[in-house]
Amino acid sequence: MSDGSVQQRQSQPAVPLLEEQRVGEILAAVPERRHWHYRPRRVGVVWRSRTFRVAAVFTVLAICGLAILALVRDQTGTQGFLVGLGLAVLPVPLLLAAFRWLDRVDPGPWRNVLFAFAWGAFAAALVAILANSFATRWIATTIADPSNADTLGATVIAPVVEESAKAAAVLLIFLFRRREFNGIVDGVVIAGITASGFAFTENILYLGNAFGEDQQIGNSGVVSVTAATFFVRAVMSPFAHPLFTVLTGIGFGLAAACARRRRIRRIVLPLLGLVLAMGMHSLWNGSAVFSPYSFYAVYAVFMVPVFGLVTWLVIWSRRRELRTLAAELPAYAAAGWLSPAEPLALSSMRARGLARDAARRQYAVAARGRWDTPYGPGWAPGSIPAAMPGAMPGVMPGAAPGAMPGAMPGAVPGPSAQAAAQAKAATRAAEAHGKAAARAVAEYESFATSLAALRLRARRGTADPDFAGRELELLHHLWQRREVAAPALTYAAQATGLLRPHRLPPLPYAQQFTPHTQYGAYGNGPAQAGAHPQSPGPGPGYNPGYNPYLMPQQPPR
Questions:
Q1: How far is Cα 553 from Cα 391, in angstroms, rounded to an integer?
Q2: pLDDT tens digit string along 402-453?
Q3: H-helix or E-strand containing 377?
Q4: Which of 143, 216, 432, 486 is most buried, judging by how many CB atoms fall within 10 Å of its CB?
Q5: From the DSSP assignment, how many helices (H) and strands (E) are in the chain?
Q6: Where does residue 30 rank: exposed (0-12), middle (13-18), buried (19+ CB within 10 A)?
Q7: Nearest Cα to 388, choosing from 547, 557, 545, 551?
């Protein structure tokens, strides 16, 4: 062998190979972490942090809000801005209340509502005012007739820009809050709230400019431009912007109800809704540009009928959600998870409210020691739920409300500041127990609604792969609150006339409902509790005496 080859071999580093040394010896020779020269790269960890995402969204919306408010104030002046702000805020509570009323069956979280309103008021408004101004100037400098720039901007550019900016909020919630976006009602609510925020900022601009014009020409009162602008935008057509964007929301709602294999529909339906929203917005703006008579004609012949049609569609969709409860929940009642009356009560908004009120009243009375007070006429004895945690000890059964511990029936305590303070404390404690019971019933109703929607999506083929785990979790939440909610809902079904022999729902399936195989320690439902005497409740190690809402059941007197 030549010297050159030997020298080249000796200059190469001695790399320990797996064939030459054992793996354990190599790993043992690795230096400690503080002496590492190469460290794992943390790719995408920051973006996965929920705190970072919330902070980023809040920061972006805050910057957009400061920018749009500064632009509006620059165009209207300080006085005009304050007048416009005071008048523009008046229709906002009515619009938000209307959309939240539509969402009463399965209300979405408030964070979605706040995000949608903030996006419409800040981000979408900022994009619209900048893009519209740029497009109008570009049209004025490029076309042969610059006098038509405002008309083209209002009828062509503004609808496209504004509806696209508002639709972005619906798209973001559809993509990143998909489990909270189930159908037409959710799409309508999110789109309407986003458009309400956009209209709020736009009204500040229009009303502020109208006030500045009145200041220049000296008008005031009902004949002023400000009053006329407020009447048109806040009285005649407060639903204009929400109505446009609601068409986009309907498209997303229909896409949410489609099966996952219908990819073309899930793309085409939102785009079709967006196009319809742009067309309707363009028609509305054009009616106000060409002549005042065309505005009233479009308002009477087109806007009002479309508004009525969309309102009917949303109310029909909400009733359909209630019918879903009546159709899907009897399967769980057949398995013993619910009582036969609960699907009937849960499918009625009146019965739901009555159940919450009954639970609040009953538990407030029970916290004072009145164990003999039933829910109402016709309520069977022995069905009185237990007192809430922290009930006043030592109160005699049948004592008057607010009676002090240890007081005999009919005893008249002497007036004292201590007795009055204790009575007030007992009253506050009883009210707190009543509110906690009503909250437990409301949570029970919400979980039951989610369970029915989950089962419906599973039958349609749109459920997520973790369907079994989500179903198990919802059943667990229902089981923890059933001792409070089940008697209240049964009473509500009786009081509203829903619970009658001919109204008991039949089984919706030809064969007996079989609980999911992954229920595990749930014991396949309370109906089969006799087959699992050691595990009658949900979850391993379940203690029937423990409940975050109730103490162990006490028998009635």
A1: 13
A2: 444 444 445 455 557 777 777 777 778 888 888 888 889 988 998 898 888 8
A3: none
A4: 486
A5: 20, 0
A6: exposed
A7: 551
